[in-house]
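Supplementary Methods, section 5.1.

A reviewer requested that the exact input to the structure prediction be made available. We therefore reproduce it here, unchanged from the version used in the analyses.
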Amino acid sequence: MRSEKTKNMVLSAMFVALISVGAFIKIPVPAVPFTLQYLFTMLAGLLLGGKRGSCAVCIYIALGLAGVPVFAQGGGIGYIFQPSFGYLVGFVVGTFVTGTIANRTNRPGYKLLLGANFIGLGIVYLFGMVYYYLISNFYLNSPIGLWPLFLYCFLLVVPGDIVLCILGAILGKRLIPLMKEGRL
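The structure derived from this sequence is encoded cell-by-cell as follows.
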C-alpha cells in the first residue's frame, strides 16, 4: 500500500516535470505556440488515470501560477490574463476525460485510446478558444473575430496535435498494460 502511494507520487511528479519540459519544446506559430505539453498531459491521463493525471496537471498549473516559469510564456499569477491560459485549464479537463475513457478497461484497444485522445483534444481546444476569445475581446481590448480565432487557435496548430494523438495512442497501447501489471 505504501509503496503504491510512493509510486503514484513519483509518477505524478514525473509527469509534472515532463509537462514543464514540454512547454519549452516549441514550434512557433502565430497566436498560440505549439508545444509538447498536450502529449504529456494526454499521457498523464492515459497512464495515471483521469483523477491522478488531472491532479498532476493541476500541480503543474499551481507551480506556474506560483511564479515558477514552467508555462510556454513564463509564469506567475498574472498568467491567467494571457489568452493562452484557457488551454492550460483545458489540459486539466481533457486529461481527466482522456484518462477516464481510456482506463475503463485494463487493456484498451488502439481505437479506444485514439478516440479518448481526440475527445481530450477537443476539450482542450474548446476551453482554449473560448478563453482566448473572451480575454482578447473583453479584457485585453484586442478584439479577435471568430474566423481569425478559428484560423490561429485551431487550424494552424491542430495538425501537429493530431499527430500527437496518434503517437499518444501508440504509446498508451504499449504502456498501459505495463502500468496495470505494475511493471512500470
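The first helix runs from residue 2 to 22. These observations are discussed further in the main text.
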